[in-house]
């Protein structure tokens, strides 16, 4: 793989990870129609994901920092409550327990954890199905049409007002299912999850924030699963350079695309992306019967 290819793949990763056009759908179409091999190796793939994760951390670093802080404070309160439980049992006392979820960031942490559960289950159980779906054009084509439809629905959703304290855990679980289903090639992860958030009545800005922050554990989990196979790859100086450049490019482009999505969602302007997904989906379906 050349440096120019690394830059190109970094741009593709940064754009399709955050804009609602489905990276997996486009890769499946390129591979099936043009016989393009866009896989740059496991290490390179992991580095691209690290780049886009860095973009999420840069845009939402204040929220992520507070969530991490509140997560450890929650763990501390749970430990203290366990001690209180045993003390009450042993000495027949009635000490009051600490309230675990008492602010928006603690609720946000728990909602993301709840969403991650169905995503992980679907990702693991549907791994073979997802791999098979990528070898044909009909599945990405149909899923791109569904993405276009979801984006139209998102554009016409009433403005919600829900922030973490107003959101139920069942909402978080259903959005996690949506993220898990979006592993199918052609279903945009960001488009599907943002649409699910808006249909659940989320505040528009929080819907984007929730969609991108909830992707962190999913992307990290996928990267960790890939890391175990990296040892079989030959690591050269050229590969390291490509990895670094690709990660930087995907991070910079991803940062721009996250900022773009904030504007798109706020102004209810998914129409252009929807038309593009319809067009790409139709091309894929037609190509399925021609190629």
UniProtKB/TrEMBL annotation:
UniProt keyword terms in alphabetical order: Antibiotic resistance, Cell membrane, Cell shape, Cell wall biogenesis/degradation, Hydrolase, Membrane, Peptidoglycan synthesis, Transmembrane, Transmembrane helix
| Subcellular location per the Swiss-Prot or TrEMBL entry | Cell membrane
- Identify the InterPro entries for this entry: UppP
- What would be an example GO MF term here? undecaprenyl-diphosphatase activity
Statement: the UniProt record of this protein carries the keyword Protease? no
User: Which chain regions cross the lipid bilayer?
Assistant: 42-61, 108-126, 132-154, 207-225, 237-258, 270-290
Q: Name one GO biological process term.
A: response to antibiotic
State the reactions this protein catalyses: di-trans,octa-cis-undecaprenyl diphosphate + H2O = di-trans,octa-cis-undecaprenyl phosphate + phosphate + H(+)
Q: What superkingdom heads the lineage? A: Bacteria
> What Pfam families has UniProt attached to this entry?
BacA
Membrane topology value: Multi-pass membrane protein
Q: Is this entry keyworded Nucleotide-binding? A: no
Please state the Enzyme Commission number of this protein: 3.6.1.27
**A cellular component term, taken from the record's GO annotations:** plasma membrane
Main location (coarse class):
membrane
The remark listed among the other comments is: Bacitracin is thought to be involved in the inhibition of peptidoglycan synthesis by sequestering undecaprenyl diphosphate, thereby reducing the pool of lipid carrier available.
Quote the PANTHER family the UniProt record gives. UNDECAPRENYL-DIPHOSPHATASE
The UniProt function text for this chain reads:
Catalyzes the dephosphorylation of undecaprenyl diphosphate (UPP). Confers resistance to bacitracin.
- Family listed: Belongs to the UppP family.
Q: Name the chain's protein.
A: Undecaprenyl-diphosphatase
Source organism (scientific name): Fusicatenibacter faecihominis
By which gene is this protein encoded? uppP
């Amino acid at each position: 793989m050349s440096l120019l290819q690394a830059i190109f793949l970094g741009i593709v990763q940064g754009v399709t990870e955050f804009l609602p056009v489905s990276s997996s759908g486009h890769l499946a179409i390129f591979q099936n129609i043009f016989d393009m091999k866009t896989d740059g190796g496991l290490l390179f793939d992991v580095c691209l994901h690290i780049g886009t994760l860095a973009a999420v951390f840069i845009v939402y670093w204040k929220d992520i920092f507070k969530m991490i802080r509140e997560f450890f404070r929650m763990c501390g309160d749970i430990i203290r409550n366990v001690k209180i439980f045993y003390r009450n049992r042993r000495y027949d006392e009635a000490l009051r327990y600490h309230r675990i979820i008492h602010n928006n960031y603690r609720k946000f942490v728990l909602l993301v954890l709840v969403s991650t559960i169905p995503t992980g289950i679907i990702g693991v159980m549907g791994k073979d199905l997802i791999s098979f779906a990528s070898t044909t054009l009909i599945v990405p084509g149909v899923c791109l049409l569904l993405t276009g439809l979801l984006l139209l629905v998102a554009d016409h959703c009433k403005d919600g007002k829900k922030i973490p304290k107003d959101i139920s855990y069942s909402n978080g679980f259903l959005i996690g299912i949506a993220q898990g289903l979006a592993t199918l090639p052609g279903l945009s992860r960001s488009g599907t999850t943002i649409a699910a958030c808006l249909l659940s009545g989320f505040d528009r800005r929080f819907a984007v924030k929730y969609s991108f922050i909830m992707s962190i554990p999913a992307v990290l989990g996928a990267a960790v699963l890939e890391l175990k196979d990296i040892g079989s790859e030959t690591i050269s100086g050229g590969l390291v350079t490509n990895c670094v450049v690709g990660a930087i490019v995907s991070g910079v482009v991803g940062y721009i695309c996250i900022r773009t999505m904030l504007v798109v969602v706020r102004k209810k302007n998914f129409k252009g992306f929807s038309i593009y997904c319809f067009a790409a989906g139709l091309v894929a379906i037609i190509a399925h019967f021609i190629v």
